[in-house]
Amino acid sequence: MPIIKSAKKRVKVAKKATIRNSKTKRTLKAALKAFTSKPEGKTHSAAQSNVDKAVKKGLMHKNKAARVKKQLAVKAKTAGTKPAAAAKKTTAKPAAKKATPVKKATVAKKPAAKKAPAKKPAAKK
Question: Residues of the chain whose pLDDT is less than 70?
């Protein structure tokens, strides 16, 4: 066990990172296995998403991720599937008011002309 305070902290931080990284790796492996067993649109998009997360968290190099995603796309194409499109979030529009007030026509105003700065009085000698 380390004696120095900063070294103790590094042990704690490393332990947390190890847990987080192992969880991300497990989900990535599971998603890739799910896609290879059942190449569907949902599993394809889930696998791509997990690959992107692994890159974001620094577990996989971006070039390796590109290669893996390309391989997934080739497998999906041979299976005849496409990645599922992300569902668009619909925002509820407010209900139309019964009596909408008539807006007045706005007239474009000229911008105010800039005035020259006032001259300062000369210092007396």
Answer: 83-105, 107, 125
